[in-house]
Amino acid sequence: MPLVSTASIVDAARASGAGAPAFNVLHLETAEALVAASERAGVPLILQISENCVRYHGSLLPVLRATQALAEESRTGISVHLDHVTDAALVREGVEAGVRSVMVDASALPYEENVAATAELTAWCHDRQVYVEAELGEVGGKDGVHAPGARTDPEEALAFVGATEVDALAVAVGSSHAMRERTAVLDKELIRALRGLLPVPLVLHGSSGVPDEELRAAVAAGMTKINISTHLVSVFTGEVRRVLREQPELVDSRKYAAPAREAVSREAERLLGELGVPAR
């Protein structure tokens, strides 16, 4: 089926009180794993391509085209989203290549500069019917310079949304990027306050470090889009290590990438069952 919009997945999840799962693509194997998981779970999924992923591949179009092609084959409804983009030129390149949703990340800038940069790119994207997510201040742990205790101020968040006209906002409520253990405890009272005040969906970054019960509680409190990357990357790498430990003679990378791909797919399927709204 044709690619669906991130907006439709997020809006459906928000209306039903469920989470909108958003899992990151690193390479073709993870994209294949995630599409298969969406099919098995019967849950729509947002596939995210980050600026770091683009750097790894050397350019946007090869990984984007492959991800779009896989998504278009799905029967459950999949969108393709650019994640954590700090480079305005990359936003424009992605939109020109058919991406219909982006995360504009100017969060490392001082507040007023973040507002100005985000508002400018949001206006450009909206002129082209592109959905925009942004972040107010960096989520704890990003690049190792922000404490996990960082919290979004609701009134500042409301002012930011009004000034930039973004469609969704990533907020700091106790999660931290790149966590390898699922031990984070989220500030559900803050999530409820943000949900009650802001007119746009809330996005949880750093969800890899959040255990299942905390994710469910966060969604119940008002969180909508749930971004997961590091946890699934760890599953992939752990399975590669297991296979090579048991079969050290292997030289064909397909022999260990295939089981790793399947391990990611099964864990993604489980997470989709925890979070997502079944496809209609």
Structural class: alpha/beta
Overall residue-averaged pLDDT value:
90
The secondary-structure element order is HEHEHHEHEHEHEHEHEHH
Shape: globular
Please compute the radius of gyration using only Cα atoms: 18 Å
| Quaternary structure | single chain
Number of distinct beta strands: 8
Low-confidence stretches: 140-146
Number of helices: 11
Give the DSSP E fraction (strand runs of 2 or more residues).
5-15%
Give the termini distance in whole angstroms.
13 Å
Please list the strands of the largest sheet in the order they lie side by side.
1-2-3-4-5-6-7-8
Major beta sheet summary: 8 strands, parallel, barrel
**Percentage of helical residues?**
40-55%
Summarize the SSE layout with pairings.
Layout: H1 6-16, E1 20-24, H2 28-41, E2 45-50, H3 51-57, H4 60-73, E3 78-85, H5 88-96, E4 101-104, H6 111-126, E5 131-135, H7 154-164, E6 168-170, H8 188-197, E7 202-204, H9 212-221, E8 223-228, H10 230-246, H11 254-275
Helix pairs in contact: 2-4, 2-11, 7-8, 10-11
Written description of the protein model:
Strands 1-2-3-4-5-6-7-8 form an eight-stranded parallel β-barrel, surrounded by ten helices. 50% of the residues lie in helices and 14% in strands. The model is unreliable at 140-146 (pLDDT under 50). It has helices at residues 6-16, 28-41, 51-57, 60-73, 88-96, 111-126, 154-164, 188-197, 212-221, 230-246, 254-275, and strands at residues 20-24, 45-50, 78-85, 101-104, 131-135, 168-170, 202-204, 223-228. The radius of gyration is 18 Å and the shape is globular. The chain is built from eleven helices and eight strands. It is an alpha/beta fold and 280 residues long.
